[in-house]
Amino acid sequence: MSTTLERQLEELELIRCSVMPGEVLTFVDDHDRWLALLDRFSAERTIPADDDIPVLPISFKVWVEGHDLRVYVSLPVDYPEVSKLPNVAVKGTTISRAEQDRWTSLIRERLQEASDNEQPTYNLVALNLFPLLHEDAEKRSAEATSLSSVSLTDTPTSPEPLFHALFTSHHLVSPTKRRNMQSWTASLNISGFAKVGYPGVIYAYGPKDAVEDFVDRVKAMQWLALRLRFLDALPEEEQDASKAVERKWGELHKVGEVVEEMRRLGREKYVTELGIGTSGSE
After folding, report:
1. Across the 282 residues of the chain, what is the mean pLDDT of every consecutive 10-residue run?
2. Are residues 183 and 253 in the same domain?
3. d(CA 199, CA 206)
4. Are residues 132 and 191 in the same domain?
5. β-strands 58-64, 70-75: how paired?
6. pTM of the entire predicted model
């Protein structure tokens, strides 16, 4: 298995090195462990003992920022020795059935073209999928701009439901990570806070797609003991009240401030039920 896994990690290393600004690659399961293993392999060219290897198969997803399409890639356990190609699927909250079929057909064609390549997954992801995702994102952006310039009749629409998510971590100190989150929340138009120091707490709320995008970006950063505690729709009775609250992002420094802010939002239970702010907390 070690030889097979080495070849898989070699391709993943190439893919990671090819990722450009605005492009994202994250592991679907055991993200932190796979990332650490890939870093170790890149530095030492060695494979750890079986007990230190996360559960196979390796599965990851790629996307471009600002675009809701996600391409999921799974490497069969016996790839590339026996199974010559990865398994690929496309998902997105706004993708239609026709678009799904188009992407499936397109990926099948690109897989066939890559089948004779010594590194078909690298060829598919770096040389085909990322360019296709950029092309699709630009096309959708142009269509949205075109639609926004057309005068539309006033039609009552259902307001988009709000989602919220909460992370905890061993700590939150890095100025770079804090600046990144500040920038992301502004561009995604979501609100919340980051409790810096020890322990770290991150809470965000806003439109569903924006919150999910934010969660994916946070997961993509290396972080000690990072745990996503929940990612859910706000209860119906809290939707209207949440829309009336001024949107903002801030930093807190004490666990008590976390409880106070959640109380102000009417959501204190979401942290106290996790033991945050109870006796024994900082």
Report:
1. 85 92 91 91 85 88 89 93 89 82 91 87 92 87 64 56 92 86 88 92 93 92 86 84 66 92 90 77 46
2. yes
3. 24
4. no
5. antiparallel
6. 0.53
Q: Which stretches does DSSP call E strand in the chain?
A: 23-27, 58-64, 70-75, 87-91, 162-169, 191-195, 200-207, 227-233, 249-252
Tokens of 255: 């666990």
Pair 220, 24: CB distance under 8 Å: yes
Beta-carbon contacts of 35 under 8 Å, excluding residues fewer than 6 positions away, are 27, 222
Q: Which two tokens stand for residue 51?
A: 């007990």
Sheet containing strand 70-75, edge to edge, reads 23-27, 58-64, 70-75, 87-91
Q: Which two tokens stand for residue 43?
A: 């530095």
**How many residues in the chain?**
282
Total domains in the fold of the chain:
2
Cis? peptide before 80, omega within 30° of 0 = yes
Task: Kindly report the CATH number assigned to the domain that includes residue 177.
Answer: 3.30.70.100
